[in-house]
Design goal:
about 180 residues, mainly alpha, Arc Repressor Mutant, subunit A, 2 domains, 9 helices, elongated
Length: about 180
Amino acid sequence: MSTVTKNRTEFEKIYVSHYSRMKRFAQEYVIREEDAENIVQDVFVDLWEQNLLLVTHTKLFAYLFTALKNRCIDFLRHKTVVQHTAVKMQDDYTKALQMKFQSLEAFDEQLFAEPDIETIIQNAIENLPEKCREIFILNKIEGKKQKVIAQELNISINTVENQMAIAYKKLKEILKDHIPLLLFF
């Protein structure tokens, strides 16, 4: 009988005689049967790969259950970290939802009841620097593409983009008390 065949036969004997007890032990701690099976399989794979089949029976038993215990600890540590992360993410999501809910509840309904919302927006646009205002009106009110605006005003498209960025920044600042209005722009 070859060494490989002898090792395989010995491995099968060890597997059959210890698998059930090891699985019950692991399942007691990791709870799910599939997880326990995977952990026990990993211990046996390590045994095979490290070629520890020739270890005496007492040492082999100690090795198997020490390895099993350590794998269960690693599994539970990992699950604890995963669970903690999931709870933290859920808490963060819940806090974000609560903030949005509170923000909507606190939203001043009178904002839209003001005599002339359009006047507020028009005044904000009028407070933009001249070139900025012109480009903003051509783009957002008249609906012209930035490339067309650049050609009409005989300026580069980069200038149009920069002026639009300036317009957005200034409008955001001017309308900070009316931020929800920006969502409708």
